[in-house]
Amino acid sequence: MKVLYKFWKNNRSLIVFIALMSVFRSAVADWYEVPTSSMKPTIEQGDRILTDKMAYDLRVPFTHISLLKINEPQTGDIIVFDSQAADNRLIKRVIGVPGDTVSLVNNELIINGKKLNYEHVQNNIDSVDKVEILNGKKHTIRIANVPSQLAGFEMITIPDDYYLAMGDNRDNSADSRVIGLIPRGELLGKANKVIVSLDYDNYYIPRKERVLLSLN
Question: Is 193 a catalytic residue?
Fold first, then answer.
């Protein structure tokens, strides 16, 4: 006991700081490292994403237990969630919310009977970037020149407390088309901006142009 007391006395400021920081990261805000290309071109591999964990719920720290629902995810939000189906933490864009009907034809979304508008941006080696106008807001998606099996699905109606989420890299994303709809209870928060980005292909050098970059 004397050893523990001495350790506490000598390190209590650090221990309290670590405890408070852990609670903060668990319940208020955290950062998430993106290891895959499923959200390109919006999010790059190596981005560290700031996640607002109070965007939708006030939760008991270190749990998924919601004490208070603050808001509901909106179409177009970029969400971070712990997927039980994928057994992994994922980041995707909300495409359909409860009550919506959604289908995908040749990589073009039809939501509640209305086809979304798309604008060509640029051609890449094996893909095309397009602007997708979703819920009145613009963001860029990437479409493979050779469509994958993910390029279409039949109309689905989103039930209560579930969300349809997809990656912006539409032909290279294991999202709701693979793992199914996202239960609300799996949500961790809303991705707001890039804190810092490390270029994996260039000796992990920080990408200056992506520091504090807001996400659309």
Answer: no
